[in-house]
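User: Hey, quick favor. My workstation is busy. Could you predict this chain's structure for me?
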Amino acid sequence: MRVAFVYDRVNKFGGAERLLQILHEIWPEAPLYTSVYNLKTAPWAKDFQIIPSFLQGFPLAKTWHEIYPWLMPLAFESFNFDDYDIVISVTSEAAKGILTKAKTLHICYCLTPTRYLWSGYKDYFPSSALRFLSFPLIFYLRQWDQRAAQRPDIYLATCKNVKERIKKYYRRKVEVIYPPIDTAKWKIKNEGKGKEKGYFLIVSRLVPYKRVDIAIRAFNRLGLPLKIGGTGREEGRLKKMAKGNIEFLGQLTDQTLLRYYGECKAVIFPQEEDFGLVPLEAQSCGKPVIAYRGGGALETVIEGRTGEFFYPQTAEALAEKILRCKEKILKGKYKPEDCRRQAEKFDIKIFKKKFKGFVERIWKNSRKSIYTF
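Assistant: No problem, here it is.
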């Protein structure tokens, strides 16, 4: 069974990239096709056989792929997958648009329908003037995206939240296999290292849709200590907003992040995420989560037991929930063992078994259908 992977671009590291590493463990010989590859910003991919598209040689494409949105469809349509039995695309954008022949099974593990075209359109294009100017490009990309969405043979979604988006925007049937978390890795093994130091924690890229600004306003108002791990283009603006009780930690290694998880009171998750691994990492470390009532967090956090939800998505609502949660933490209402058990439902071993079993079953069934006359 010859397998290949396809991913939108290999130039950063996050939840999707962790997922690709795990798929690589299941099928270590599978090459990874992508639009562009930047070894400096994606050293995690050094163990893969990377096959980039023609965009690899374009000026600035490896670091500023956003300047070539109209070429992304062509980049993925240019690949040839005739030598493979199965192609697994992991995508939130154009990788689902690859072209395969009938003998090759294309399974799309969809992280979300292209955010800037659909569910997040107004977030990416907030002004009417910007929407007007970008209309010809967005119209073209939406038309292509909906055509490309019909090309995979099978869809998998990361959660029920994404499943509903796929049904809404692409009108495709879809099954859910939750992304994994390595609970053996995200575990506070030394109780001394895990002693709380009284602060709350955010772990996030600093970009607009993550809504870290809401948390900063809430903690400015409360005066409670907040630490923020992560970097991004919003970093400068957010630092100017923050008062002295808020500390920016920059980019953290997993080992350092584990210590911060262990020492915090709770993790703040103010955004609406497609799925979101941070709440699971926090719970795996025995910590409760205060999350916005929306997106994938609704499927990973148990309200009143492993965390709380705030609504609406405002600093005022978050501040109120933080104070309530703080009191419950002091009274010991959130049990580390409950948080840990919840995270273990999403363990990497469970994911590997489910995903590998699903792919092999679908492939065997597809072979039977081909040879049935």
